[in-house]
Specification:
single chain, alpha+beta, 6-stranded antiparallel barrel, 4 helices, about 210 residues
């Protein structure tokens, strides 16, 4: 579990399809530790003097923007029990790949417009949470097939958002609570049953 706050901007040394070598100041403690690379939760297979190596399964590779495993990347180690959560709860399970279609400069910060796959649109909401390339962000507006995010100057400075251009593919993880609520409501709809109070209470408890 992560909270969407980038620990370090690290450097990709090599990427061979199922093995990603990272040069970073951060050192994992153990083989098997979980580290989010551009938001994707990956397992450490080697600890090196100047960084570490993580493994990428074929399932993960099919869902994420592997073309961005070059140059610089976001990294975030898994949270420890009792850590403060300043972003939101992020699993590191990428739902799909979005595309930055427009960037607009504001008086303070920038608006980023990101097209999402159609199947992800039910899981986003105005003022809801989303993780883009591992960065916890608030959705300012939901459009027919996209979302608008306002990136503040501090986030532009501390993450790679300051380097992002239109056309870039980004990893998208929707809010885990929205996914569970949608699954419960969808299951009820498939059975053509009305919600019981027990089910309503269950959905409420998720929040």
């Amino acid at each position: 579990m992560f909270n969407g706050l980038i620990r370090e901007i690290a450097e990709v040394v090599s990427f061979s399809g199922n093995s990603l070598r990272i040069r970073a100041k951060f050192r994992p403690e153990h083989i098997g530790d979980s580290i989010a690379i551009n938001g994707a939760c990956l397992s450490v297979t080697q600890i090196l003097a100047d960084g570490f190596v993580v493994e990428i399964s074929s399932e993960t590779a099919s869902l994420i923007a592997t073309q961005n495993f070059k140059g610089r990347v976001h990294i975030e180690p898994a949270m420890r029990l009792g850590d403060r959560i300043d972003g939101h709860l992020v699993q590191g399970h990428i739902d799909g790949v979005g595309e930055i279609t427009k960037i607009t400069k504001l008086k303070s910060g920038y608006d980023f417009f990101i097209n999402l796959p159609k199947n992800l649109m039910p899981f986003v909401a105005n003022k809801g949470s989303v993780a883009i390339d591992g960065v916890s962000l608030t959705i300012n507006e939901v459009l027919p097939n996209a979302i608008r995010l306002t990136i503040i100057p501090q986030t532009m400075k501390d993450t790679l958002f300051g380097e992002f251009k239109t056309g870039r593919k980004v990893n998208v993880e929707t809010d885990l609570l929205a996914r569970y609520a949608a699954r419960i409501l969808g299951f009820v709809g498939e059975k053509k049953e009305s919600l019981s109070w027990d089910q309503v209470n269950l959905i409420s408890s998720l929040y």
